[in-house]
Amino acid sequence: MRIGGALFSVLVCGSLAFQPSPARAQEHTFLDGPSGPTIDDYLKQAGPDVKLVPQGSLKIDGRTVNCGKRPTVLNSNFDSWGGAFPGFVILNTKKITGLSTAVKLYVYSHECGHQFEGPDETKADLFAIRRGVKWGWLDAVGMEEICTFISTLKGDAVHPPGPQRCETMRNYYKQLIESGTTQSASAPAAEPVSKQKAQALAPQQ
Q1: pLDDT tens for residues 175-202?
Q2: CA–CA dist 92, 156 (Å, integer)
Q3: Whole-angstrom distance, CA of residue 154 vs CA of residue 160
Q4: Rounded distance, CA 30 to CA 49, Å?
Q5: Inter-residue contact 122 to 170 (CB < 8 Å)
Q6: Are 96 and 107 in contact (CB under 8 A)?
């Protein structure tokens, strides 16, 4: 299920002090508009050991990815594989290393999905699967790698149990393939910061 190798075109190491208290990033929602921290506020709180990657500059296993015009913050101490505040995506460079390419792209695309679909975890999952099929990085093998990865995760008030997420995504993948969905050449276009909680891929482990 997991392959080694470099994840990003930009490599960042180190630690940081900022964590959305109480480190339950998935609890943040987009329902009330752009209520999260600005990217500048987040970086200021996070400190010098995180890395901001501008839109269009991030590569995952050699593949350029984007989330519209939104940048990505590489944060090796984030409490999940990835997260999202309104306006930017977060990737944990430590946790995501070693995952297969399809799973890495799923993590990124899931978090990007929150930017377009809001806080609903199932909608973000389906956004990722739809993007994978349309952009040509998701095949049947990759779908099973994603299922193997997600099925180990527990559910909570925000996230359905991993096996349920797997079945939902797998069924949606089959629907897309059977409907003839093919690769597209185009890309889709408050409180103190310390108390803000980002949307995250899964419950805190």
Answers
A1: 999 998 766 544 443 333 334 445 555 5
A2: 21
A3: 8
A4: 27
A5: no
A6: yes
Residue found by looking up tokens 């990759």 in the block: 142
**Helix 162-178 to helix 121-135 angle, to the nearest 10 degrees?**
40
The C-alpha atoms of residue 54 and residue 101 are separated, in whole angstroms, by 21
The CA-atom distances, in angstroms, between 34 and each of 17, 166, 172 are: 24, 30, 29
pTM here is 0.76
Q: Is the peptide bond before 48 cis (omega within 30 degrees of 0)?
A: no
Range in 28-32, 50-54, 142-146, 180-184 the model is least confident about: 28-32
Residue 69's beta-bridge partner residues?
Answer: none
What is the pLDDT, as a whole number, of residue 190? Answer: 33
Contact assessment for residue 83 and residue 199, using Cβ atoms and an 8 Å cutoff:
yes
Burial of 188 (0-12, 13-18, 19+ CB in 10 A): middle
pLDDT score of 171 more than 80: yes
Query: Coil, strand or helix: which one is 202?
Result: coil
**DSSP code for 5:** S
Q: What is the pLDDT confidence band of residue 106, given thresholds at 50, 70 and 90?
A: very high
